[in-house]
Design goal:
This protein is an alpha+beta fold. Helix content is about 35%, strand content about 20%. The protein has an 8-stranded mixed sheet with strand order 3-2-6-7-8-9-1-10, with helices on both faces. The longest helix is centred in the C-terminal third of the chain and has 20 residues, at about 290-310. It is globular and about 65 Å long. Bound molecules: iron/sulfur cluster (SF4) (2 copies).
């Protein structure tokens, strides 16, 4: 919808003004890491953060939410309604792609009214990443180190100013009456292009093949010995899925109070990596081994989501690699599978 230029000196005042009019969340430092949390004033916001422990997904898919309450034979469903908007500040482009992915999942087929209501109430202020978040980031391979749509506002750091790309009317409204915002000159456009061009060499490809080959690589690797090797190492701790911006598996839990007459039903994050995840009636576990669960995890990221939704289910944020105590990573896994496939093909020839 257009580009504006904001003086960096005006940024704290702008954030403070938003904090006074609506809920603002964003990255904050905590114990040497960054977490998304409520922002009460601009000085709390660490807009230049590396990565966050949990992605901003938690504001549209909370770790736990009540779906209904019951008392006797009375049941009251919880209905998410439009309320005060939440501005999520400083969303990195990989997380923006992850939210786009979740939109695709939750808006198709049986739409999820809770998700859609929260999404409607969410205003996304994203920021162009000018360097990789961590050693584990592989956003360049996944095509997520930049974004052209889906944001309400998108910031690009130009040094003493921000280029502010307006993506929606909601975003435009956030800038209303802000005096320190001006129209860009042709030199400003050149500066934006220069900053974007200069960032690309700072990011490196990590996969040994093109990501478009990922679904077929996984198909060819269904019976690879590598899954057993991963299963031997995996601790089934679920950290990898808990920190993932595209994981959305949940459990439904009924909690009854001491009277046995009242309680509530909640939806809570779950993980395909937990031993009991695939346990069904009769105690049967249809994905009992850690090897089978690791295979499922990577198939879901690189193949199943592509087949179901037309998008790869991994945005290359690297959080799972940083979180895993035994160093199981998507890059190593996919490259190992690729190496073994190439060796097997060469042997056949
Ligand atoms: S699988 Fe790992 S790298 Fe990919 S989106 Fe999830 S946490 Fe990020
Ligand atoms: S974080 Fe690592 S050890 Fe834990 S479940 Fe995931 S792959 Fe297994």
């Amino acid at each position: 919808m257009g580009l504006k230029i904001m003086q960096k000196a005006a940024f704290p005042g702008w954030v403070n003004r938003l904090c006074a009019s609506c809920r603002v969340v964003g990255p904050k430092p905590l114990h040497g890491q960054y977490v998304f949390d409520d922002i009460g004033a601009a000085e709390e916001l660490a807009i230049d953060y590396s990565t966050s422990v949990l992605p901003p997904k938690k504001y549209i898919l909370p770790q736990r939410e009540e779906l209904l309450y019951f008392k006797g034979d009375q049941i009251e469903a919880v209905i998410e309604e439009a309320s005060q908007p939440t501005v999520i500040m400083g969303v990195h482009t990989c997380d923006m792609h992850a939210i786009h992915f979740l939109d695709r999942v939750y808006e198709q087929g049986y739409t999820d009214q809770h998700y859609l209501a929260r999404r409607e109430n969410t205003i996304l202020v994203s920021i162009e990443c000018l360097r990789p978040c961590t050693e584990s980031s592989f956003c360049k391979d996944m095509g997520t180190l930049s974004i052209t749509e889906g944001f309400d506002l998108h910031l690009t750091d130009l040094g003493d100013e921000y280029a502010v790309d307006i993506g929606s009317e909601k975003g435009e409204a956030l800038l209303d009456n802000l005096e320190e915002v001006s129209d860009p000159t042709s030199e400003d456009y050149q500066r934006v292009n220069r900053v974007i061009a200069e960032k690309w060499p700072r990011f490196h490809y990590k996969l040994d093949f093109d990501v478009t080959e990922l679904p077929s690589l996984l198909t060819a690797s269904a019976n690879s010995d590598y899954w057993g090797e991963l299963g031997d190492r995996c601790l089934a701790c679920a950290m990898c899925t808990n920190v993932c911006p595209t994981c959305y598996c949940f459990n439904i839990v009924d909690e009854v109070d001491f009277s046995l007459n009242a309680g509530q039903r909640t939806r809570q994050w779950d993980s395909c990596q937990l031993d009991e995840f695939a346990t069904v009636a009769g105690g049967h576990n249809f994905r009992e081994t850690r090897a089978a669960r690791q295979r499922h995890r990577f198939f879901r990221k690189g193949k199943y989501q592509w087949e179901a939704h037309g998008l790869i289910g991994c945005v290359g944020c690297g959080r799972c690699a940083e979180a895993c105590l035994v160093h199981i990573t998507p890059v190593d896994t996919f490259n190992q599978l690729n190496l073994r496939r190439r060796k097997a093909t060469a042997e056949v020839k």
